[in-house]
Amino acid sequence: MKKSNICKNAYNNQYISNIIRFPKWAQGVWEESLIVNGTMTFTDLNGYNSYTFITVESNEETGRHIVYSKDQW
User: Fold this and answer.
1) CA dist list (Å): 47 to 10, 33, 50, 62
2) Residues near 47 by beta carbon (within 8 Å), at least 6 away in sequence
3) Mean pLDDT of the chain
4) pLDDT of res. 4
Protein backbone atom coordinates (compact mmCIF):
# COMPACT_ATOMS: atom_id res chain seq x y z
CA MET A 1 0.00 0.00 0.00
CA LYS A 2 1.35 3.39 -0.99
CA LYS A 3 0.20 6.27 1.13
CA SER A 4 0.75 9.98 0.75
CA ASN A 5 1.16 12.36 3.63
CA ILE A 6 -1.60 14.88 4.27
CA CYS A 7 -3.63 15.84 1.21
CA LYS A 8 -6.20 18.62 0.85
CA ASN A 9 -9.53 17.34 -0.43
CA ALA A 10 -10.57 19.79 -3.15
CA TYR A 11 -14.24 18.93 -2.82
CA ASN A 12 -14.90 20.14 0.69
CA ASN A 13 -11.63 21.82 1.74
CA GLN A 14 -10.95 19.23 4.43
CA TYR A 15 -7.59 17.65 4.99
CA ILE A 16 -7.42 13.89 4.59
CA SER A 17 -4.37 11.91 5.64
CA ASN A 18 -3.11 8.66 4.17
CA ILE A 19 -4.86 8.72 0.81
CA ILE A 20 -4.25 5.36 -0.85
CA ARG A 21 -3.22 5.33 -4.51
CA PHE A 22 -4.48 3.19 -7.35
CA PRO A 23 -1.81 0.76 -8.65
CA LYS A 24 0.97 2.18 -10.80
CA TRP A 25 -0.20 0.20 -13.85
CA ALA A 26 -3.67 1.79 -13.63
CA GLN A 27 -2.45 5.40 -13.83
CA GLY A 28 -3.38 7.44 -16.91
CA VAL A 29 -6.24 7.80 -19.37
CA TRP A 30 -8.70 4.92 -19.85
CA GLU A 31 -11.42 5.78 -22.40
CA GLU A 32 -13.72 8.12 -20.41
CA SER A 33 -11.65 7.85 -17.20
CA LEU A 34 -8.54 9.54 -15.87
CA ILE A 35 -6.62 8.00 -12.95
CA VAL A 36 -4.00 10.08 -11.13
CA ASN A 37 -2.56 8.72 -7.87
CA GLY A 38 -5.61 8.00 -5.66
CA THR A 39 -8.22 9.82 -7.75
CA MET A 40 -10.25 8.54 -10.69
CA THR A 41 -12.48 10.86 -12.70
CA PHE A 42 -15.07 9.30 -15.02
CA THR A 43 -16.91 11.45 -17.55
CA ASP A 44 -20.25 10.18 -18.84
CA LEU A 45 -20.25 11.50 -22.39
CA ASN A 46 -23.92 10.61 -22.92
CA GLY A 47 -25.26 12.27 -19.77
CA TYR A 48 -22.64 15.05 -19.58
CA ASN A 49 -21.89 14.17 -15.94
CA SER A 50 -18.53 13.77 -14.26
CA TYR A 51 -17.91 11.42 -11.32
CA THR A 52 -14.86 11.49 -9.06
CA PHE A 53 -13.68 8.54 -6.96
CA ILE A 54 -11.02 8.90 -4.25
CA THR A 55 -9.35 5.76 -2.92
CA VAL A 56 -9.60 5.42 0.85
CA GLU A 57 -8.56 1.78 1.31
CA SER A 58 -7.06 -0.95 -0.84
CA ASN A 59 -6.35 -4.66 -0.64
CA GLU A 60 -3.35 -5.64 -2.76
CA GLU A 61 -4.17 -9.35 -2.43
CA THR A 62 -7.62 -9.03 -4.01
CA GLY A 63 -6.88 -5.92 -6.11
CA ARG A 64 -9.99 -4.21 -4.75
CA HIS A 65 -10.28 -0.60 -3.59
CA ILE A 66 -12.79 1.14 -1.35
CA VAL A 67 -13.51 4.58 -2.74
CA TYR A 68 -15.34 7.77 -1.78
CA SER A 69 -17.31 9.19 -4.69
CA LYS A 70 -18.78 12.52 -5.63
CA ASP A 71 -20.71 13.45 -8.75
CA GLN A 72 -20.46 16.81 -10.49
CA TRP A 73 -23.00 18.26 -12.94
Assistant:
1) 23, 15, 9, 32
2) none
3) 76
4) 40
